Amino acid sequence: MFDTTSAAESADIGLNLKPDAGLEAVEGYTQMGGTDKSGTIGLGNSFIYFPAPNADGEVGLQQHVDKWLQWYWAYDSVAGLQDPRATAYFGTYRGHDRIIYWREVY
Of 2, 4, 33, 96, which sits 20 to 30 A from 64 (CA to CA)? Predict the structure, then answer.
């Protein structure tokens, strides 16, 4: 089970969002269409949906999880176990002029 309700950094569980200026209203949802803010992780997969903001920028994400889901994300045992982190980018990406064809495979 996970929660996308914006949480303070000291929260034990939930999604902590650190948006750029102009993206403060961005919220994460567990269902398409902006419904539900809690969901389950099945077979190691889950999705967080964001409604498209009217500004460019990025939002830092940190999902506060139970201790057994934490990992050495900094690849350093000195830093210890940490919550998973990611970044959501909003806006357009032009790419590089020398790339003729770009395809993302999931």
Answer: 33
**Through-space distance between the first and last CA atoms of the chain, rounded to whole angstroms:** 24
Q: Report the percent of the chain where pLDDT is more than 70.
A: 73
> Does residue 31 contact residue 51 with C-beta atoms inside 8 Å?
no
Distance CA 28, CA 61 (A): 10
Element containing residue 58 per DSSP (H, E): strand 57-64
CA 10 – CA 6 distance, rounded (Å): 11
The pLDDT tens digits of the residues spanning 63-91 come to 877 788 888 887 777 778 888 888 888 88
Distance of alpha carbon 19 from alpha carbon 57, whole angstroms: 8
Rounded-to-10 torsion of CA 23, 8, 48, 20: 20
pLDDT digits (tens, 9 = 90+) for 46-66: 788 888 888 888 888 888 777
Residue type, 27: E
